[in-house]
Design brief:
Blueprint (H helix, E strand, L loop, with lengths): L2 H14 L8 E5 L5 H9 L4 E4 L2 H14 L4 E4 L8 H7 L2 E5 L2 H14 L4 E5 L13 H13 L4 E5 L8 H14 L4 E3 L6 H6 L4 E4 L1 H4 L17
Parallel strand pairs: 1-2, 1-8, 2-3, 3-4, 4-5, 5-6, 6-7
This protein binds pyridoxal-5'-phosphate.
Length: 228
């Protein structure tokens, strides 16, 4: 697989769903990938990336941003409150807003800094105890709270349970977004992004299908193979 293959598959999935070309953004998930793979994708002209750790993004992206104007990096992993300030300087969007205390911290920092990344509320559609995200039944109230804080909320995000049909989760996320008037839907990964596009995804987060198996050290890929 490659960037061009994924782009072609996205175009086909959009056409099949009767959606306009270009109506989904491809977030190339570069976490734990060797630098040369990420750089190849940058050199091919791609500019939107996803990272799941603040520290890792802080170490990698400032230098690439200087070399490749127009880069945008989205945080797709959990955010600890004590890293919120740093995250606000590193990312154009945060896909993992999932609790009132984090929302309040981001609102305070946004006041301080005079700007804030675009925000997605993460919904734990599978109600998995180990997974981040607000429960579906609590989503409407949490969304209302985020709006009350004047935060730039643009959509919802989910990571379906590994062993369930993802389409059911994508449909649930789309339903919650629609009834709350939210346009953004961050859903779909390497194994299921076409199904997510059929159900309205505006942002797909694709890592291993673009870059190959993860692992920062050469030869470490097998030990950190993606769960998908
Ligand atoms: C790692 C990750 C992805 C990408 O997963 P792939 O299966 O490699 O495409 C997408 N979303 C989140 C939240 C991730 O942590």
């Amino acid at each position: 697989m490659s960037l061009a293959d994924i782009a072609a598959r996205i175009d086909r999935a959009l056409a099949a769903a009767g959606r306009p070309p270009g109506s989904v953004k491809l977030i190339a998930v570069s976490k734990e990938q060797p630098a040369e793979r990420v750089q190849a994708v940058l050199e091919a002209g791609h500019r939107l990336f996803g990272e799941n750790r603040v520290q890792e993004a802080a170490a990698k992206w400032p230098a690439w941003r200087e070399r490749f104007p127009g880069v945008a990096v989205h945080l797709i992993g959990p955010l600890q409150t004590n890293k919120a300030r740093q995250a606000m300087g590193l990312f154009e969007a945060i896909h993992s807003l999932d609790r009132p205390r984090l929302a309040e911290t981001l609102a305070r920092l946004a006041q301080d800094l005079g700007r804030c990344p675009d925000l997605f509320v993460q919904v734990n559609t599978g109600e998995e105890p180990q997974k981040a995200g607000v429960l579906p039944a609590e989503a409407d109230a949490f969304i209302a709270r985020v709006r009350q804080l004047d935060l730039p909320l643009v959509g919802l995000m989910c990571i379906p349970p590994a062993d369930e049909e993802p389409s059911l989760h994508f449909a649930l996320l789309a339903k919650i977004a629609a009834r709350n008037g939210l346009a953004g839907l961050s859903m779909g990964m390497s194994g299921d992004f076409e199904r997510a596009i059929a159900l309205g995804a505006t942002h797909v987060r694709v890592g291993s299908a673009i870059f190959g198996a993860r692992g920062l050290r050469p030869g470490a890929a097998a030990a950190t193979a993606p769960e998908t």
